[in-house]
Amino acid sequence: MGNILWDGQTATWIDHERALGREGLPDVNKLAALVTMSGIDDRDIQRAAVGISLTLGEQAIREAEASCGDLNVSGFAQQVADRLGPLATRVLQRFPQPHDLFTEGDGTAGGLQ
């Protein structure tokens, strides 16, 4: 997690993970993890993120592809289209999830695969 500040000439990278002593965390949405660590109920944020991901579809891809004019972006458009199906699940997985009786350390139900 970081930010890039740019004044038009010089870019400066701000490394929030190192500043907060959180480097080396698993690949999760770091902002979502910070919200969870703060104790704020993040269910509304999760619902909003999943909701936005569900609004994306083939129409958005066609519009984006058309806006590129003469550039051939069909391969990239197809790659995006292929990833839209599981997008909502992937967004939800970026949020830290509580462990419950059905989840073992390997992330599978009951440890079974």
Please estimate the helix content: 40-55%
Strand content: 5-15%
The main sheet comes to: 2 strands, antiparallel
Secondary structure: number of strands = 2
Task: Measure the end-to-end span.
Answer: 31 Å
**Adjacency order of strands in the biggest sheet:** 1-2
Please tally the helical runs, counting DSSP H or I stretches of 4 or more residues: 6
Q: Regions with pLDDT < 50 over 5+ consecutive residues?
A: 109-113
Please identify the structural class as seen in this structure: mainly alpha
Shape: flat
* SSE order: EEHHHHHH
Whole-number average pLDDT?
Answer: 76
Rg result? 19 Å
Descriptive labels:
flat, mainly alpha, 113 residues, 6 helices
What report would you give on this structure?
With 113 residues, the protein is mainly alpha-helical. Helix content is 48%, strand content 9%. It is built from six helices and two strands. It has helices at residues 16-19, 30-38, 43-55, 58-67, 74-84, 87-93; strands spanning 2-6, 11-15. It has a two-stranded antiparallel sheet. α3 (43-55) runs antiparallel to α6. The protein is flat and about 45 Å long. The protein starts with a strand and ends in a 20-residue tail after the last helix. Residues 109-113 have low confidence and may be disordered.
